[in-house]
Amino acid sequence: MISFSAKRSSALNNKPVSKTMKNKPALIILNGKEFNKKEFLNSLSDDRLVIAADGGIKYLDGLDVPPLIHIGDMDSSVPGSKVPIKDTIIFPAEKNFSDFHLALEYAQKKKVSEVLVFA
């Protein structure tokens, strides 16, 4: 479980975040090299919030798992992805936060109970 600090400056201050997912877990998919598809699929359930951070969206291709949000500066996302995305928040490449940080903040604003990270 990842804990959050209330003192952390937020990159999402001016970005709308709809309904909360209070007491529900979040799955964050990052653009890593060791994505464990089986473990990810075993962690899925109807009440989980799926967040794709930038290039992590590629791991959802063909899985029929639409993320609630695709977030980041989109510098490593592959154009033409066939993943159905419910919402996207794009940040400028010149930012003081990583895409992972943005995904964590989004999860925090949704008031999730825990965060599982896949990369």
Short synopsis of the structure:
This protein is α/β, with parallel strands linked by helices. The chain has helices at residues 37-43, 99-109, and strands at residues 26-29, 49-53, 69-72, 88-90, 115-118.
What do you see in this structure?
The structure is a single chain. By secondary structure, the protein is an alpha/beta fold. It has a single domain (26-118), classed as Thiamin pyrophosphokinase, catalytic domain (Rossmann fold). 15% of the residues lie in helices and 17% in strands. The chain contains two helices and five strands. It has helices at 37-43, 99-109, and strands at 26-29, 49-53, 69-72, 88-90, 115-118. A five-stranded parallel beta sheet has the order 4-3-2-1-5, covered by helices on one side. The protein is globular and about 35 Å long.
